[in-house]
Amino acid sequence: MSPDLTEHTITEAVQRSFDTATDDRFRQVFVSLVQHLHDFARDVRLTGEEWFAAMDFLERVGKVSSSTRQEVMLLSDILGFSMLLDRINQHAGSSVTSSALLGPFYVAGRPTADNGDDISDGVSGTPMFVTGRVVDERGEPVAGAHVDTWHSDGEGFYDVQQTEKLHDEFAMRALLTTDDDGRFWYRSITPRYYPVPTDGPCGEIMRGANRSVMRPQHVHFWLHADGYQSLITQLFYRDDPYINRDAVFADVESLQADFVRHEPGVAPDGTTVNVPFVTLDWTFVLSDSAE
Ligand code: BEZ
Ligand code: FE
């Protein structure tokens, strides 16, 4: 007869139940997960009531999630887990542009655009001119790279959040392609800071912590090129009131950019703009080692 399990011996017993797993990685992940999960409960002396509350919370996170409402992803984001994984999987000290989380507002099937196009689709706001260059780790241009970009409007809303208000399905998002010199450029409107969704279960955590729910102004990019690792990232407005306290911890210093304000005049694309406008210029470095 096996001896009664104690608070300490149960961990090893559970871990041993994975000895029969045929996939080594599966076993490694679960043995470690059991260790940390059990240590966590012992560490905080978790009560049964607290665990029931946690299970109810997780159930509600699952129930509210759908293809358009990504509460599971939001939980990972607000706990810093998404950015932790980004950091774990990024080689320290490399010149490659830092990655930053995808977020819930990426949409597959977005329209393609030509360099120079206005991708705002008629949404009003302060004009923004984005110029970018995609290079490899030696600084050589990456021609033909696909640049997916998306951002909010001047009130902090994405197109998918206001389908009733907008004429078209897509606005402030497009897929561009770099020219022979690795360059891309487009016109849009300037985004603004916005809160992460707080009307679901994740809002309870943020209210409990009394913490900021805001994301500083940013533009998203997803770069893909044959022979290179694809890069999901964001560029943040360095002077934003919410910079360095992003609700999802993505606003790392190396991704903080100058969104430069200009008086009316000639824009980077040579057109004359008769209202104040903003420019954003960035060089993205891709890792040569293909996935
Ligand atoms: C975003 O960047 O769009 C985003 C990321 C995490 C939570 C909410 C929004
Ligand atoms: Fe965003």
TrEMBL record:
GO terms for biological process: catechol-containing compound metabolic process. Residues 103-260 form the Intradiol ring-cleavage dioxygenases domain. The keyword Oxidoreductase applies. Residues 23-92 form the Catechol dioxygenase N-terminal domain. Gene3D superfamilies: Aromatic compound dioxygenase. It comes from the Bacteria. GO terms for molecular function: catechol 1,2-dioxygenase activity; ferric iron binding. Coiled coil: none annotated. Keywords: Dioxygenase, Iron, Metal-binding, Oxidoreductase. Its cofactor is Fe(3+). InterPro entries: Catechol_dOase_N, Intradiol_dOase_C, Intradiol_dOase_core, Intradiol_RC_Dioxygenase. Belongs to the intradiol ring-cleavage dioxygenase family. This is 6-chlorohydroxyquinol-1,2-dioxygenase. It comes from Mycobacterium cookii. The lineage of its organism: Bacteria, Bacillati, Actinomycetota, Actinomycetes, Mycobacteriales.
